[in-house]
Amino acid sequence: MNNEQGHNRHQFLAILGGGESGVGTAILGKKEGYTVFVSDKGKIAENYRQLLDEHEIEWEEENHSEERILTADLVMKSPGIPEDAPLVNLIRGKGIPVISEIEFASRFTNANIIGITGSNGKTTTTKFTHFILKNGGLKVGMAGNVGQSFARQVAETDVDHYVLELSSFQLDGIEEFCPHIAVLTNITPDHLDRYRHNFDNYIASKFRITMNQTEEDYFIYDADDEIITKWLRENPIRSQKLPFSLQKEVIPGAYIKDEQIIISLENTQITMPTSDLTLEGKHNAKNAMAAATVAQLLRIRKETIRESLSNFQGVEHRLEKVLKINNVQYINDSKATNVNATYYALESMDAETIWIVGGVDKGNNYAELLPLVNEKVKAIVCLGVNNEPILSAFGNCVDVIVETRSMEDAVKEAYKLAEKGDSVLLSPACASFDLFKNYEDRGRQFKEAVRNL
User: Fold this and answer.
1) pLDDT tens track for 120-133
2) Which of 39, 126, 352, 450 has the fewest CB atoms within 10 Å around its CB?
3) Does 3 fall in a domain?
4) Higher per-residue pLDDT: 442 or 119
5) Does one domain contain both 417 and 273?
6) 134 and 248 share a domain?
């Protein structure tokens, strides 16, 4: 992999964006002998400024020095910057390669890479996989959208395996990046604003995870997802396919039969009762199957895999049980930033639900939620600046809809509406930027408000 070494002495690496991935790339680039310059159109956070200064890396904020950036040999663009930003077009017009942090970092490690992508479930599956491999005694790092950036870990740690959570934006910037094991949890319309509202562009982005794979590599995917199976029929891939399914037996692959999870590869098979999974919901059975398939490929002991599946606690802000008050369960699913994630949440509710929903709508189609809302939701609390789409989607099927503008009010309203045995679910189906910094901030405010009831 380390084909870059030796070529980069005095090469000029310009980095757009001074956040986690930008600063990580800067630290790795400096270590590998590049001349590095970090440029951010906004402000760079204090902790990142300090890091850059400690490593004696030049940076600028609230400005892009275009002339200087256009002399770069290589540009790393942070995933938050759109592909067609004017400066990015200028750089490409000059023939300068523009890559993602994931692409850059992968050039400087010989570790085995497990890449996980999908519209939903990728954080849980990433953490799940990392948890099993760690329990199995492997030296394993976890990066991508979770924790420290991949580049920084490559610069500062030494591990044999990386589990990477990859967004479509990160995959858009790869050239040679090739995970030995790729996982695709599912594909549903999300971020279409970034893909010119063309769903096929978004699907193609996700499948870039397989683009450099060979027959020696593996692709683990949801065989129940029609979008994935259709794409695979029309666009053959080279890697070995390992499906997982709740609906049919797939061999080799993972499936459920008679309340047992069965993972069947080459000549080994693991079985365990579905009731042993700590995480509830059909989607979590799928996340568990994907993670266990990776573990089995890496020869983790069956016992370790079973134990890990029954001990894994899940992810903060993803169907996280907060408190029971007056026999009402409060659940934080702030990480549900699209309709499909909320679909899973509502599907896993077995009590009458007061649903807190709303935020920045990415052109959501709420129609697919109607049957679940009819069946499970007795009241809706809107939490957003513009609640019109929610009011018009659900006005006819829920008797009580309340509008609120702050988390504190939303939780108070939900508390008033809830009766013994009900659940209060925060599952916004939207981004959080109208009232909160991000979905973590939204989730923490929810938990705080619940504790203050």
Assistant:
1) 889 899 999 999 99
2) 352
3) no
4) 442
5) no
6) yes
Residue 185 identity (one-letter amino acid): T
Contact 102, 144 (CB under 8 A): yes
Cis peptide, bond prior to residue 243, ω within 30 of zero:
no
- Out of 46, 76, 99, a domain closes at 99
Banded pLDDT at 144 (limits 50, 70, 90): confident
Mark whether 365 and 245 lie in a shared domain: no
Is 119 marked within a binding site? yes
pLDDT class of 1 with cuts at 50, 70, 90: very low
Alpha helices per DSSP H over 136-185: 150-156, 168-172
The SS3 call for residue 282 is helix
> Which residues make beta-bridge pairs with 422?
none
Within-domain flag for 2:
no
Give residue 445's domain range. Answer: 320-451
Residue 120 known to bind ligand: yes
Distance CA(122)–CA(111), nearest Å, equals: 21
The pTM for the full model equals: 0.79
Question: How many domains, in total, are found in the chain?
Answer: 3
Does residue 290 share a domain with residue 171?
yes
Spatial CA neighbour of 426 closest among 348, 340, 372, 346: 346
In terms of domains, do 250 and 304 share one?
yes
- 124 appears as a binding residue in the annotation: yes
Name the residue among 79, 181, 206, 168 with its Cα closest to residue 130: 181
DSSP β-ladder status, 181-184 and 112-117:
parallel
Chain-wide mean pLDDT for the chain? Answer: 93
> 110 and 210 share a domain?
yes
384 is in an annotated binding site: no
